[in-house]
Design brief:
Length: about 350
C-alpha cells in the first residue's frame, strides 16, 4: 500500500513539448491537451502508486465496465496564472469533496485527498507553461474516474483508473445563449444521480439538446421531472434569474449539481449587496416577469462556462427575448469572481489556493 503521507509521485516526462504547435488565441474548448497526465489505478481494494506521464492513449479491454454501464465520474476545475506568474486554483476542496460524493453514488471507491492535491500540484508545476496569464485565460483541469475491470457483469467494478488531464481554455460558450425550457424530457429525478458529475448525466442530454439546437436554441434549462413547472439547471451550468433587482436560483437537491461557481456567486451577490433568493423558481413566474418587463437577466454559471448570459428562452410556442441591461449582474458578478480567481482582488473567503 502506498503511504499516504510520505508517497512520491512517479514522474516520467515527455521527450518534447507540443506547446509550440498550439495557437493560444484560437482555442476550441477541450480539444488541446497539455504534455502530461496524472494516473492512479485502483486494484484489489487499494489505490496504487500515482504517476505522471506523457499525455497518451489508454489501453483498456473492450469489456471494461465503464464502456458498458457508464461507471464514470468527473470534475471540472481551472488553474489561473497571475501577473507575477503564480499559479492558483479556485476552491479545489469543493471539487475534491464532490468527486468523492459522485463516486460514492456510483458505488466507486473514494480517492485519497493527498493523492488528489499532490497530483494536481505536481502536474501543474510540470505543465505550468500551458497556463497563460490574463483574464479570459485558464487551464481547464479534468479529474475523472473510470471502471476498468474487464467484465460485462452489471455490478460495481473492482478496478478503476483515476486520471487528471489538462486543457488550455477560453470561454465554453462564445456569445449569448438561447435556451429552451424543458417540457418533455428530463435530466434527473428524485433519488437519481442528478447531483453527481456522472458521465451518463451528460450523454442523456445530448439527444434533447440536439432537438433544441435544430430550433436554434443551444441549451435546455431542465425542469423538474414530475411537473416540468420548476426551473432547475442547464446541464452544463446552474441557472440564475434576475427579476427586477433580485436574483433567483434553485436550491440544490439530489437532482441539481452543487456547482462551485453557483455557490460562489451566491456569496459574491451577498458581498455586493445584491439580493439573492435560493428557492424554487417556477416557469410561470419567469414567463410572467418577462411579460411584465420585470425579467432583466438570465445567466448560467459553471466552471467551464464561467457566467454565460442568456438572451432568449422558449416555452410552449412562445419565445421571450431578454432586454439589453446596463450594469448587468452577470457582468458584475463575473468580474468580481474572475478578479478573485486571477489574484487581482482581495480573497476574503479564502477561496484561492496557491500551487507552490
Ligand atoms: C464544467 O463546467 O466544468 C463542466 O464540467 C461542464 C462540462 C460540460 C464542460
Amino acid at each position: 500500500m502506498t503511504n499516504l503521507d510520505t508517497f512520491k509521485i512517479d514522474i516520467s516526462k515527455a521527450k518534447q513539448s507540443k506547446i509550440e504547435q498550439v495557437d493560444f488565441d484560437n482555442l476550441a474548448f477541450g480539444r488541446v491537451f497539455t504534455d502530461h497526465m496524472f494516473v492512479c489505478d485502483f486494484v484489489d481494494g487499494v489505490w496504487q502508486q500515482p504517476k505522471i506521464m506523457p499525455y497518451q492513449t489508454l489501453t483498456i479491454e473492450p469489456s471494461a465496465r465503464v464502456l458498458h454501464y457508464g461507471q464514470a465520474v468527473f470534475e471540472g476545475m481551472k488553474a489561473y496564472k497571475d501577473v507575477q506568474g503564480k499559479v492558483w486554483l479556485f476552491r479545489p476542496d469543493q471539487n475534491f469533496n464532490r468527486i468523492n460524493k459522485s463516486a460514492a453514488r456510483l458505488a466507486m471507491p473514494e480517492f485519497p485527498q493527498t493523492f488528489f492535491f499532490k497530483g494536481l500540484e505536481e502536474l501543474l508545476k510540470i505543465d505550468h507553461q500551458w497556463i497563460k496569464s490574463g483574464i479570459g485565460n485558464s487551464l481547464y483541469l479534468r479529474p475523472f474516474v473510470i471502471a476498468t475491470e474487464p467484465a460485462i457483469a452489471a455490478s460495481p467494478a473492482n478496478a478503476y483508473k483515476f486520471m487528471i488531464i489538462c486543457s488550455p481554455a477560453k470561454a465554453y460558450y462564445t456569445g449569448k445563449v438561447r435556451v429552451l425550457f424543458a417540457e418533455k424530457y428530463s435530466r434527473s429525478a428524485n433519488g437519481g444521480v442528478g447531483f453527481a458529475k456522472a458521465a451518463g448525466n451528460y450523454a442523456a442530454q445530448f439527444y434533447p439538446t440536439s432537438l433544441a439546437q435544430k430550433e436554434g436554441f443551444q441549451q435546455v434549462i431542465w425542469t423538474d421531472a414530475n411537473t416540468h413547472e420548476n426551473l432547475e439547471e442547464a446541464g452544463t451550468m446552474n441557472t440564475f434569474f434576475r427579476v427586477n433587482d433580485t436574483l433567483l436560483t434553485a436550491p440544490i437537491s439530489d437532482r441539481i449539481l452543487d456547482g462551485v461557481t453557483r455557490k460562489s456567486l451566491i456569496q459574491l451577490a451577498e458581498d455586493l449587496n445584491i439580493k439573492c433568493e435560493v428557492r424554487t423558481v417556477t416557469v410561470n413566474e419567469i414567463k410572467t416577469a418577462a411579460r411584465n418587463g420585470e425579467l432583466k437577466e438570465i445567466f448560467g454559471a459553471g466552471t467551464a462556462a464561467v457566467i454565460s448570459p442568456i438572451e432568449a428562452f422558449k416555452h410552449g410556442d412562445e419565445v421571450f427575448e431578454l432586454p439589453e441591461v446596463k450594469d448587468s449582474y452577470a457582468d458584475l458578478l463575473k468580474t468580481s469572481m474572475l478578479n478573485i480567481q486571477h489574484n487581482l482582488a482581495e480573497d476574503k473567503h479564502g477561496w484561492r489556493y496557491e500551487v507552490k
